[in-house]
Design brief:
By secondary structure, the protein is of the alpha/beta class. Helices cover about 35% and strands about 25% of the residues. Helix 3 packs across helix 4. Bound molecules: adenosine-5'-triphosphate (ATP) and magnesium ion. Adenosine-5'-triphosphate binds next to strand 1, strand 2 and helix 1.
Length: about 240
Amino acid sequence: MSETGTILNVTNVRKTYTLGRVKVPVLHGVDLDVRAGEWIAVLGASGSGKSTLLHLMGGLDRPDRVKGERASISFMDREITSLGSHALDKYRARDVGFVFQFYHLLPELDVMSNVCVGGMIRHGRLGYRTNRKSIQGRASELLGRFGLGDRLGHRPAELSGGERQRVAIARALINEPRVLLADEPTGNLDQKTGDSILDTISEHRASAGLTMVMVTHDERIAARADRVIRLVDGRVQEDPGL
Ligand SMILES: Nc1ncnc2c1ncn2[C@@H]1O[C@H](COP(=O)(O)OP(=O)(O)OP(=O)(O)O)[C@@H](O)[C@H]1O
Ligand SMILES: [Mg+2]
Protein backbone atom coordinates (compact mmCIF):
# COMPACT_ATOMS: atom_id res chain seq x y z
CA MET A 1 0.00 0.00 0.00
CA SER A 2 1.26 3.53 -0.65
CA GLU A 3 1.62 6.05 2.17
CA THR A 4 -1.69 7.59 1.20
CA GLY A 5 -3.54 4.28 1.61
CA THR A 6 -4.01 3.84 -2.13
CA ILE A 7 -3.75 0.27 -3.34
CA LEU A 8 -4.75 0.71 -6.96
CA ASN A 9 -4.61 3.92 -8.94
CA VAL A 10 -5.88 4.69 -12.42
CA THR A 11 -4.84 8.00 -13.96
CA ASN A 12 -5.94 9.43 -17.28
CA VAL A 13 -6.64 6.05 -18.86
CA ARG A 14 -8.05 5.91 -22.36
CA LYS A 15 -9.15 2.83 -24.23
CA THR A 16 -10.16 2.57 -27.83
CA TYR A 17 -10.96 -0.73 -29.53
CA THR A 18 -10.12 -1.06 -33.17
CA LEU A 19 -12.30 -3.25 -35.33
CA GLY A 20 -10.83 -3.28 -38.81
CA ARG A 21 -10.87 0.36 -39.78
CA VAL A 22 -13.48 1.33 -37.21
CA LYS A 23 -12.31 2.86 -33.96
CA VAL A 24 -14.53 2.39 -30.92
CA PRO A 25 -13.49 4.84 -28.21
CA VAL A 26 -14.71 3.62 -24.83
CA LEU A 27 -12.75 5.25 -22.00
CA HIS A 28 -11.80 8.91 -22.34
CA GLY A 29 -9.43 9.61 -19.47
CA VAL A 30 -10.51 7.63 -16.44
CA ASP A 31 -9.18 8.60 -13.01
CA LEU A 32 -9.82 6.36 -10.04
CA ASP A 33 -8.10 5.98 -6.72
CA VAL A 34 -8.88 2.76 -4.84
CA ARG A 35 -7.94 2.74 -1.18
CA ALA A 36 -6.85 -0.41 0.61
CA GLY A 37 -9.77 -2.24 2.17
CA GLU A 38 -12.36 -0.20 0.30
CA TRP A 39 -15.36 -1.66 -1.55
CA ILE A 40 -16.16 0.32 -4.69
CA ALA A 41 -19.25 -0.36 -6.78
CA VAL A 42 -19.07 0.58 -10.46
CA LEU A 43 -22.36 1.48 -12.13
CA GLY A 44 -22.97 2.58 -15.70
CA ALA A 45 -25.13 1.88 -18.72
CA SER A 46 -24.54 -1.24 -20.77
CA GLY A 47 -21.62 -0.53 -23.09
CA SER A 48 -20.27 2.30 -20.92
CA GLY A 49 -16.94 0.49 -20.45
CA LYS A 50 -17.26 -1.12 -17.01
CA SER A 51 -15.81 -4.48 -18.06
CA THR A 52 -13.17 -2.68 -20.10
CA LEU A 53 -12.03 -0.70 -17.05
CA LEU A 54 -11.95 -3.81 -14.87
CA HIS A 55 -9.90 -5.71 -17.47
CA LEU A 56 -7.38 -2.87 -17.59
CA MET A 57 -7.11 -2.78 -13.79
CA GLY A 58 -6.61 -6.54 -13.75
CA GLY A 59 -3.77 -6.37 -16.27
CA LEU A 60 -5.81 -8.32 -18.82
CA ASP A 61 -5.56 -5.56 -21.40
CA ARG A 62 -3.49 -2.41 -21.86
CA PRO A 63 -4.67 1.20 -22.14
CA ASP A 64 -4.09 3.35 -25.22
CA ARG A 65 -0.75 5.09 -25.53
CA VAL A 66 -1.38 8.67 -26.50
CA LYS A 67 1.49 10.88 -27.62
CA GLY A 68 2.15 13.68 -25.17
CA GLU A 69 -0.11 12.19 -22.48
CA ARG A 70 0.74 10.20 -19.41
CA ALA A 71 -1.61 7.41 -18.50
CA SER A 72 -1.00 5.06 -15.63
CA ILE A 73 -2.41 2.13 -13.72
CA SER A 74 -0.47 1.32 -10.59
CA PHE A 75 -0.80 -1.32 -7.91
CA MET A 76 0.86 -0.41 -4.61
CA ASP A 77 2.79 2.33 -6.40
CA ARG A 78 4.07 -0.06 -9.07
CA GLU A 79 3.15 0.74 -12.65
CA ILE A 80 1.48 -2.31 -14.17
CA THR A 81 1.02 -1.04 -17.72
CA SER A 82 4.75 -1.28 -18.33
CA LEU A 83 5.34 -4.68 -16.75
CA GLY A 84 6.78 -7.43 -18.92
CA SER A 85 4.66 -10.50 -19.48
CA HIS A 86 6.25 -12.51 -16.65
CA ALA A 87 5.74 -9.79 -14.04
CA LEU A 88 2.22 -9.19 -15.35
CA ASP A 89 1.43 -12.90 -14.99
CA LYS A 90 2.60 -12.69 -11.40
CA TYR A 91 0.41 -9.65 -10.74
CA ARG A 92 -2.62 -11.46 -12.17
CA ALA A 93 -1.89 -14.65 -10.26
CA ARG A 94 -1.08 -13.17 -6.82
CA ASP A 95 -2.29 -9.67 -6.32
CA VAL A 96 -5.70 -9.58 -7.95
CA GLY A 97 -8.55 -12.03 -8.21
CA PHE A 98 -10.83 -11.64 -11.21
CA VAL A 99 -14.46 -12.68 -11.57
CA PHE A 100 -15.42 -12.50 -15.23
CA GLN A 101 -18.86 -11.39 -16.33
CA PHE A 102 -19.22 -14.65 -18.24
CA TYR A 103 -17.36 -16.86 -15.69
CA HIS A 104 -14.81 -18.39 -18.10
CA LEU A 105 -14.72 -21.73 -16.28
CA LEU A 106 -12.89 -24.59 -17.95
CA PRO A 107 -15.63 -26.90 -19.26
CA GLU A 108 -13.68 -30.15 -19.06
CA LEU A 109 -12.65 -29.67 -15.42
CA ASP A 110 -14.85 -30.29 -12.40
CA VAL A 111 -15.67 -27.63 -9.81
CA MET A 112 -12.78 -28.48 -7.49
CA SER A 113 -10.22 -28.42 -10.33
CA ASN A 114 -11.60 -25.18 -11.74
CA VAL A 115 -10.93 -23.51 -8.39
CA CYS A 116 -7.52 -25.16 -7.92
CA VAL A 117 -6.35 -24.00 -11.35
CA GLY A 118 -5.69 -20.57 -9.82
CA GLY A 119 -3.35 -22.24 -7.33
CA MET A 120 -1.57 -24.09 -10.12
CA ILE A 121 -1.01 -20.86 -12.01
CA ARG A 122 0.32 -19.14 -8.93
CA HIS A 123 2.62 -21.88 -7.66
CA GLY A 124 3.69 -23.49 -10.93
CA ARG A 125 3.53 -27.23 -11.50
CA LEU A 126 6.17 -28.22 -8.94
CA GLY A 127 5.04 -25.74 -6.32
CA TYR A 128 1.47 -26.89 -6.78
CA ARG A 129 2.47 -30.48 -6.08
CA THR A 130 4.12 -29.40 -2.83
CA ASN A 131 1.20 -27.20 -1.77
CA ARG A 132 -1.60 -29.32 -3.21
CA LYS A 133 -3.11 -30.38 0.10
CA SER A 134 -3.40 -26.84 1.44
CA ILE A 135 -4.71 -25.44 -1.88
CA GLN A 136 -7.33 -28.18 -2.11
CA GLY A 137 -8.25 -27.64 1.52
CA ARG A 138 -8.76 -23.95 0.91
CA ALA A 139 -10.74 -24.64 -2.27
CA SER A 140 -13.13 -26.98 -0.53
CA GLU A 141 -13.48 -24.57 2.38
CA LEU A 142 -14.34 -21.70 0.00
CA LEU A 143 -16.71 -23.86 -2.04
CA GLY A 144 -18.39 -25.02 1.15
CA ARG A 145 -18.91 -21.41 2.21
CA PHE A 146 -20.48 -20.71 -1.16
CA GLY A 147 -22.90 -23.61 -0.73
CA LEU A 148 -21.22 -25.86 -3.29
CA GLY A 149 -19.80 -28.50 -0.94
CA ASP A 150 -21.89 -31.20 -2.64
CA ARG A 151 -21.01 -30.12 -6.19
CA LEU A 152 -17.23 -30.57 -6.15
CA GLY A 153 -17.25 -33.26 -8.85
CA HIS A 154 -19.67 -31.50 -11.21
CA ARG A 155 -18.54 -29.95 -14.45
CA PRO A 156 -19.65 -26.41 -15.32
CA ALA A 157 -22.27 -27.73 -17.81
CA GLU A 158 -23.87 -29.61 -14.91
CA LEU A 159 -24.32 -26.46 -12.83
CA SER A 160 -26.85 -23.66 -12.81
CA GLY A 161 -25.74 -20.16 -13.85
CA GLY A 162 -25.64 -18.99 -10.25
CA GLU A 163 -23.60 -22.01 -9.21
CA ARG A 164 -21.10 -21.33 -11.98
CA GLN A 165 -20.86 -17.77 -10.79
CA ARG A 166 -20.06 -18.95 -7.28
CA VAL A 167 -17.34 -21.29 -8.59
CA ALA A 168 -15.84 -18.32 -10.44
CA ILE A 169 -15.82 -16.28 -7.22
CA ALA A 170 -14.16 -19.10 -5.28
CA ARG A 171 -11.53 -19.40 -8.02
CA ALA A 172 -10.84 -15.67 -7.79
CA LEU A 173 -10.27 -15.94 -4.04
CA ILE A 174 -8.15 -19.10 -3.98
CA ASN A 175 -4.82 -17.23 -3.90
CA GLU A 176 -5.93 -14.76 -1.23
CA PRO A 177 -5.54 -11.72 -3.49
CA ARG A 178 -5.29 -8.19 -2.10
CA VAL A 179 -7.89 -6.95 -4.57
CA LEU A 180 -10.99 -8.64 -5.96
CA LEU A 181 -12.15 -7.30 -9.32
CA ALA A 182 -15.62 -8.66 -9.87
CA ASP A 183 -17.69 -8.11 -12.98
CA GLU A 184 -21.36 -8.45 -12.00
CA PRO A 185 -20.66 -11.31 -9.62
CA THR A 186 -24.32 -11.65 -8.70
CA GLY A 187 -25.80 -10.68 -12.05
CA ASN A 188 -27.36 -14.09 -12.67
CA LEU A 189 -28.58 -14.83 -9.19
CA ASP A 190 -31.99 -14.32 -7.67
CA GLN A 191 -32.07 -11.67 -4.97
CA LYS A 192 -31.87 -14.07 -2.05
CA THR A 193 -28.95 -16.07 -3.42
CA GLY A 194 -27.21 -12.88 -4.56
CA ASP A 195 -27.55 -11.39 -1.09
CA SER A 196 -26.19 -14.47 0.61
CA ILE A 197 -23.19 -14.57 -1.76
CA LEU A 198 -22.54 -10.90 -1.03
CA ASP A 199 -22.79 -11.63 2.69
CA THR A 200 -20.17 -14.35 2.30
CA ILE A 201 -17.91 -12.08 0.23
CA SER A 202 -18.37 -9.30 2.82
CA GLU A 203 -17.41 -11.59 5.69
CA HIS A 204 -14.41 -12.79 3.73
CA ARG A 205 -13.51 -9.19 2.98
CA ALA A 206 -13.61 -8.21 6.63
CA SER A 207 -11.45 -11.13 7.74
CA ALA A 208 -8.98 -10.98 4.83
CA GLY A 209 -8.83 -7.18 4.49
CA LEU A 210 -9.81 -7.55 0.86
CA THR A 211 -10.25 -4.52 -1.41
CA MET A 212 -13.10 -4.87 -3.89
CA VAL A 213 -14.05 -3.20 -7.14
CA MET A 214 -17.38 -4.62 -8.19
CA VAL A 215 -19.33 -3.88 -11.34
CA THR A 216 -23.08 -4.11 -10.91
CA HIS A 217 -26.29 -2.99 -12.55
CA ASP A 218 -28.10 -3.26 -9.26
CA GLU A 219 -28.30 -0.04 -7.25
CA ARG A 220 -29.45 -2.05 -4.24
CA ILE A 221 -26.14 -3.94 -4.29
CA ALA A 222 -24.21 -0.75 -4.97
CA ALA A 223 -25.74 0.73 -1.83
CA ARG A 224 -23.84 -1.85 0.24
CA ALA A 225 -20.49 -0.60 -1.04
CA ASP A 226 -18.34 2.05 0.67
CA ARG A 227 -18.26 4.17 -2.47
CA VAL A 228 -20.16 4.21 -5.73
CA ILE A 229 -18.80 5.47 -9.02
CA ARG A 230 -20.51 5.70 -12.37
CA LEU A 231 -19.00 5.49 -15.82
CA VAL A 232 -20.55 8.20 -17.94
CA ASP A 233 -19.23 9.27 -21.35
CA GLY A 234 -16.04 7.31 -20.78
CA ARG A 235 -15.17 9.01 -17.49
CA VAL A 236 -15.71 8.37 -13.79
CA GLN A 237 -18.36 10.25 -11.88
CA GLU A 238 -18.46 9.90 -8.12
CA ASP A 239 -21.99 9.11 -7.03
CA PRO A 240 -22.74 10.51 -3.60
CA GLY A 241 -26.45 9.87 -4.06
CA LEU A 242 -26.57 6.25 -2.90
N1 LIG B 1 -12.85 -6.58 -27.81
C1 LIG B 1 -13.61 -5.58 -28.24
N2 LIG B 1 -13.53 -5.13 -29.51
C2 LIG B 1 -14.27 -4.09 -29.92
N3 LIG B 1 -15.16 -3.42 -29.18
C3 LIG B 1 -15.31 -3.85 -27.91
C4 LIG B 1 -14.56 -4.94 -27.37
N4 LIG B 1 -14.91 -5.12 -26.08
C5 LIG B 1 -15.85 -4.19 -25.82
N5 LIG B 1 -16.10 -3.42 -26.92
C6 LIG B 1 -17.03 -2.29 -27.00
O1 LIG B 1 -16.69 -1.38 -25.98
C7 LIG B 1 -17.84 -0.88 -25.32
C8 LIG B 1 -17.73 -1.12 -23.83
O2 LIG B 1 -17.80 -2.50 -23.57
P1 LIG B 1 -17.80 -3.09 -22.09
O3 LIG B 1 -17.88 -4.56 -22.22
O4 LIG B 1 -16.66 -2.53 -21.34
O5 LIG B 1 -19.17 -2.47 -21.53
P2 LIG B 1 -19.92 -2.73 -20.15
O6 LIG B 1 -20.11 -1.40 -19.49
O7 LIG B 1 -19.20 -3.77 -19.37
O8 LIG B 1 -21.35 -3.26 -20.63
P3 LIG B 1 -22.34 -4.37 -19.99
O9 LIG B 1 -23.03 -3.68 -18.85
O10 LIG B 1 -23.28 -4.66 -21.11
O11 LIG B 1 -21.53 -5.55 -19.57
C9 LIG B 1 -19.03 -1.55 -25.97
O12 LIG B 1 -19.63 -0.63 -26.83
C10 LIG B 1 -18.44 -2.72 -26.72
O13 LIG B 1 -19.14 -2.96 -27.90
MG1 LIG C 1 -19.66 -5.70 -18.85
